[in-house]
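sry for the spam today, last one i promise. C-alpha cells for design, 267 residues
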C-alpha cells in the first residue's frame, strides 16, 4: 500500500503549529525520491526547468506538455511529498485555459496542486480552479513569467504603496480559495507581515525567515546555479559527502529557522 501523501490540510496544520515547511524544486523521479527521503515535504515542479534543465534564457518557452512530462516523472518517484506543478506562461490567461491546463497537469501529470503567478488579476482563474476542487498555490513578488514587464529580476514590494498592493493581493488570493502562497524576492519585513496576516502557509524564496516555509531551486542549493548567485541562495553541498546529505542539511536548517539567515534577505 502506498504511503499517504501530505495534503493541503497537513500544510495548514503545520502553519498553525509553527512547524516550518521544507520545499524544493524537482524535475525527475530520481531527485524526487532523494528529496522526499531527506524529509522535503513539498516538491515543486517549477517552470524553472526551462532554465536549469532545458537551457532557456527565461521560463517563458516552457509548455504545458513540458510540465505534464516532468510532473509525471516526479510523481512516479515520490510516495509521500505533496507535488505542486507550475502553470506555465499563458496557460492561465483565462479561466477556460487554466481549467484545461490544470486538468492535464492533474489527470496526466498526477499533480496534487497547481501554482500560478499574479495577484488580483488572477482571482477569476483561482475561483474557477477552486470550484472544480483543484488546490491552488499563488505566487507574488518577483514573477519570472513577467520578467520583461518588470525590467529584470529585481526585488519587489519596496515602498509603502507597492507593499500595500502586495498585501492586498495576498489577502485576495486567500479569499478566492488559494491554499498556499509563494513570495519571491520581497523585503523580509513585508514577507513576515504577509505570513502573519494569512491563514494559509506562505513559502518564501528570497523573502527572509518570517515565512512559514522555504523553497529553493534544487540545482541552486547544490551549488550548480549561476556563477554569481543571488544573495538568498546557499550551497548546501559544501562540507557534505553526498547530495542526500546536502538535502538533509537544508531540511534541518529550514526546520530550525536557521535558513534563511539575515544575510539572505532584503530590506
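last one done:
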Amino acid at each position: 500500500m502506498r504511503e499517504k501523501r501530505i495534503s493541503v490540510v497537513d500544510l495548514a496544520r503545520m502553519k498553525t503549529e509553527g512547524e516550518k515547511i521544507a520545499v524544493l524544486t524537482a524535475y525527475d523521479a530520481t531527485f524526487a525520491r532523494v528529496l522526499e527521503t531527506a524529509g522535503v515535504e513539498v516538491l515543486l515542479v517549477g517552470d524553472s526547468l526551462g532554465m536549469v534543465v532545458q537551457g532557456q534564457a527565461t521560463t517563458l518557452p516552457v509548455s504545458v506538455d513540458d510540465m505534464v512530462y516532468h510532473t509525471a516523472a516526479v510523481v512516479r518517484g515520490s510516495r509521500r511529498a505533496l507535488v505542486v506543478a507550475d502553470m506555465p506562461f499563458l496557460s492561465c490567461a483565462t479561466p477556460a485555459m487554466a481549467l484545461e491546463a490544470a486538468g492535464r497537469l492533474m489527470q496526466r501529470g498526477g499533480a496534487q496542486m497547481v501554482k500560478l503567478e499574479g495577484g488580483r488579476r488572477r482571482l477569476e482563474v483561482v475561483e474557477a480552479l477552486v470550484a472544480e476542487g483543484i488546490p491552488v498555490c499563488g505566487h507574488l513578488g518577483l514573477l519570472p513569467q513577467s520578467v520583461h514587464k518588470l525590467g529584470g529580476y529585481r526585488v519587489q514590494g519596496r515602498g509603502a504603496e507597492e507593499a500595500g498592493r502586495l498585501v492586498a493581493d495576498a489577502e485576495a488570493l486567500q479569499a478566492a480559495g488559494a491554499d498556499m502562497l509563494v513570495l519571491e524576492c520581497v523585503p523580509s519585513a513585508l514577507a513576515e507581515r504577509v505570513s502573519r496576516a494569512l491563514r494559509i502557509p506562505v513559502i518564501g524564496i528570497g523573502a527572509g525567515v518570517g515565512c512559514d516555509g522555504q523553497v529553493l531551486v534544487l540545482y541552486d542549493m547544490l551549488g550548480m546555479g549561476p556563477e554569481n548567485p543571488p544573495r538568498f541562495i546557499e550551497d548546501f553541498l559544501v562540507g557534505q559527502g553526498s547530495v542526500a546529505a546536502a538535502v538533509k542539511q537544508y531540511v534541518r536548517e529550514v526546520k530550525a529557522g536557521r535558513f534563511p539567515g539575515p544575510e539572505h534577505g532584503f530590506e
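The mean pLDDT is 95. ok im logging off now
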